[in-house]
Specification:
Elements lengths: L8 E5 L4 H12 L3 E6 L11 E4 L7 H13 L4 E4 L16 H29 L2 E6 L9 H25 L4 E8 L5 H14 L3 H12 L9 H12 L10 E4 L8
Parallel strand pairs: 1-2, 1-4, 2-3, 4-5, 5-6, 6-7
């Protein structure tokens, strides 16, 4: 086992499945003590991550998470704000209610702002820390009939992350964004199945619709571990001069650099 993160405490929100679980497992394998959050506890916790139950669409959850981490460990070294999802239906602007917009922004943007605000004082006090905000390629290339409110919340996350990196650089804290494209997760497979059901087409046809919309030169979905590997590098000392950057992990889908 590599121990490049030994002694460090890392928070991974949404860390019990999909990309979040891959990130949590990867950081743990590098020696970090990993804290994960989700609405419900996983059925099994083979890697012994410390679990905190939290629904990040609820504003009070950030305070619960921050208090428990700082009480138990007395510090925080790494924050990976991974929790996020496209909570709204497809169909464009007319299909979206105020509640859809509110829920997407609570989970995908405001929860990140709240968690960072409550944990950053501990990082500033120790003059070190790394924040990775997980965004999406859809923030730069929104699909109007699928991701309108979700994309707008993640675009705000990108701008916020750059501003935060500029503010915190002199305090020894780095902030970067990782923007996955289409990743093979349970959430993505549910999304594709919902498209199939709502459009009365097969799952294979729905998958083709998504891939055609996104346009992936490598021709496949990413595996969660491929996202986790980049995150593990960015939180390590090997990336100590990297901050304020947004990394696309999308198989070449974004048509511009």
């Amino acid at each position: 086992m590599e121990t490049i993160l030994k002694g460090q405490v890392a928070l991974v929100t949404g860390g019990t499945k999909g990309i979040g679980k891959a990130i949590a497992d990867k950081l743990s394998s590098k020696g970090a003590q990993v804290v994960v959050t989700a609405r419900t506890a996983p059925e099994e916790n083979l890697n012994e991550h410390y679990f905190i139950a939290a629904d990040l669409t609820q504003p009070q959850s950030a305070a619960v998470i921050a208090k428990e981490i700082l009480t138990k460990y007395g510090k925080i070294d790494i924050i990976v704000n991974n929790a996020g999802a496209n909570l709204s239906p497809g169909g464009g602007f007319d299909a979206l209610t105020d509640e859809h917009w509110y829920n997407d922004w609570q989970l995908n943007f405001l929860s990140v702002v709240r968690i960072n605000k409550l944990l950053l004082p501990a990082m500033i006090k120790q003059n070190s820390g790394v924040i990775i905000n997980i965004s999406t390629g859809a923030a730069k290339l929104p699909i109007w009939e699928m991701t309108m409110s979700y994309s707008s919340a993640k675009a705000a996350l990108n701008a916020y992350s750059k501003a935060l990196a500029n503010e915190l650089g002199s305090k020894g804290i780095r902030v970067n964004v990782v923007s996955p494209g289409v990743v093979k997760t349970p959430l993505m497979m549910d999304f594709i199945e919902n498209i199939a059901n709502s459009s009365n087409i097969t799952v294979d046809d729905a998958f083709k619709v998504v891939m055609d919309k996104v346009g992936v030169p490598l021709g496949r979905m990413a595996e969660p571990d491929e996202i986790a590997s980049l995150v593990a590098f960015l939180v390590s000392a090997e990336a100590r001069y990297i901050t304020g950057t947004n990394y696309a992990v999308d198989g070449g889908a974004l048509p511009t650099t």
